[in-house]
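To whoever picks this up:

The parser on our side crashed when reading a file containing two proteins. I've narrowed it down to the boundary between the first structure block and the second sequence. Both blocks are reproduced below exactly, byte for byte. First block:
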Amino acid sequence: MNTVFYLTATIAVLATAMVIFSRNAVHALLYLIISLLATAIIFYLLGAPFAAALEVIVYAGAIMVLMVFVIMMLNQGDAAVQQESQWLQPKSWFGPAVLAAVLLLQLILLLDSEAAANTQGAHAVGAREVGIALFSRYVLAVELASMLLMAGLVGAFHLARGKHTKSAERDHAI
């Protein structure tokens, strides 16, 4: 189990570093998904399967869809079309695909009966305990996180709208 943990942690750190250093927003988003999936596997290894499921459903699922919508909303016309054709090159998907394949292999090994028996010693946290904790002790943190996400979305919308109105004014002036 230690080997799986360290390999997963290494993948999480590498993917997070690639998020920071990627110049392309879509590539950074792919690496962020890999990082969140690795974090979910670490939660599972530590005996929190419900937290792992929440990590996949909420972060790697819902919030990443929101980020894709923001990237689409900030579409920049013909330059974006040329960039999208470059994104479809196999070399762009190689890094995230390799990291995702390693995580998938680890998950298959973990779900094997022998590996699952090793994680049974940890105390499993259920949905009830998580719900009570989120809406009692951590309610302020949950609300602040939701407000921060909403502020980011509204800010991105205003930035995109300002860009489109300036280009429309420039086109009408000519």
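<<boundary where parser fails>>
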Amino acid sequence: MTLNAPRSTPNGASHPPQHIAIVMDGNGRWARRRFLPRLAGHKQGVESLRRCLKACAARGVAVLTVFAFSSENWNRPQDEVSGLMELMGKALLREVPQLVEDGVRLFFIGERGGLSAGMRDALAQAEAATAQGARMVLNVCFNYGGRWDIAQAAAALAARGEAITEASLHGAMAMGHVPDPDLLIRTGGELRISNFLLWQAAYAELYFTDALWPDFDEAALDAAIADFAARERRFGRTSEQVVGVEPSTC
């Protein structure tokens, strides 16, 4: 798939992160502070995702990956889980036509065996409907866990009789269709990644913000991108190698 080349960001950085991943945390607390049911926070979170996707596209980000529902979220109260599943179904009906119009290709990443047949069909239909999208990729991690991803990749290689190496394991991961994330953002003030992209985030720049996900707006995204742009990404090299100068011999 051919994606648009990155464009300048509002803060002046000429090379925005190609791939941003987000742990969208804080929906429940956002609702509680307003004396609303938790599901109201999740509904507002969908609006925030729509806004963030549009902002990422405008800033030249090629891939956006979001953590929508973890494999551990099944442990939440049943009424909240049921509400989240219903919210996902409604969001697909409403959002997919706009994604098609905007040229966004949608992928759902996660274990589908635990989902209802109706939900599995809905996810597959949404992916098929957006398959021609060439402007941007949106990965929605749904019933996903980083440990599951590593385990399923190893199991797939073993079933095919292939050697399990770093390269082969990387290729068997659930997000082999996109480069690893450059920037991983977590909203809501927690300082952990919660089993999200454990393999893929090995060299991602981590950014934590106290903003609750429903409040994460364009200004908050720009602050994260500006912080990313100010960092030196060495990937094991020295600073001198990164900037292309000879190290001092003094």
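After patching the parser it read the second block fine. The two ends are 49 Å apart (CA to CA). The helical segments are 27-33, 38-58, 78-102, 117-129, 146-159, 166-172, 218-229, 239-243.
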